[in-house]
Design a protein that fits this description.
- This protein is α+β, with helices and mostly antiparallel strands.
- Helices cover 18% and strands 26% of the residues.
- It has a domain of 68 residues: Alpha-Beta Plaits.
- The chain is built from 2 helices and 4 strands, in the order E-H-E-E-H-E.
- The protein has a 4-stranded antiparallel β-sheet.
- The radius of gyration is 21 Å and the shape is elongated.
- This is AsnC family transcriptional regulator.
- InterPro entries: Dimeric_a/b-barrel, Tscrpt_reg_AsnC/Lrp_C.
- GO terms for molecular function: sequence-specific DNA binding.
Length: 112
C-alpha cells in the first residue's frame, strides 16, 4: 500500500514522529543528502542556518526503530532528536500573500 505524505502515520504503522537536527561537515554534505534520499522514513529535510546544518522530520515504527534510523545518519555528525508528543498546528494549505497596502504617510505626532 502506497501512502501519501499527508497520510496519518499511525494508520500506516508508524507510532513515533521525530525532528532531528544534525551538524554535518561541509565535505560530507553531498554524501549525507544521498543517504537521506534512501531512507523512506525521512519525510522532510531542510538545509538551515544556525547550530544545525539540517533539520529533518521522520517517522519510525517505535523507539527501537528510531534508534536504528539515527544509527544510519549519526556517522555524518552530531544529532539532536526531539520526539513529537502531539501536533499543535497540522499541515495546512498555503494561501497567497495579501496584496501590499498603499503607503499612507502620516504626519508625525508633535512632541509635548
Amino acid at each position: 500500500m502506497k501512502a501519501s505524505p499527508r497520510a496519518n502515520s499511525y494508520k500506516v504503522g508508524y507510532q513515533v514522529t521525530a525532528i532531528i537536527g544534525i551538524t554535518v561537515a561541509q565535505p560530507a554534505k553531498a554524501k549525507f543528502t544521498k543517504v537521506l534520499e534512501g531512507i523512506a522514513e525521512v519525510l522532510e529535510c531542510y538545509h538551515v542556518t544556525g547550530a544545525d546544518s539540517y533539520l529533518m522530520k521522520l517517522v519510525a515504527k517505535d523507539v527501537a526503530h528510531l534508534e536504528q534510523l539515527i544509527g544510519r545518519i549519526y556517522l555524518y555528525g552530531e544529532t539532536r532528536t526531539s520526539i513529537v508528543m502531539s501536533t499543535t498546528i497540522a499541515p495546512r494549505p498555503l494561501l497567497k500573500p495579501a496584496a501590499p497596502q498603499p503607503n499612507r504617510s502620516r504626519r508625525p505626532s508633535s512632541l509635548p
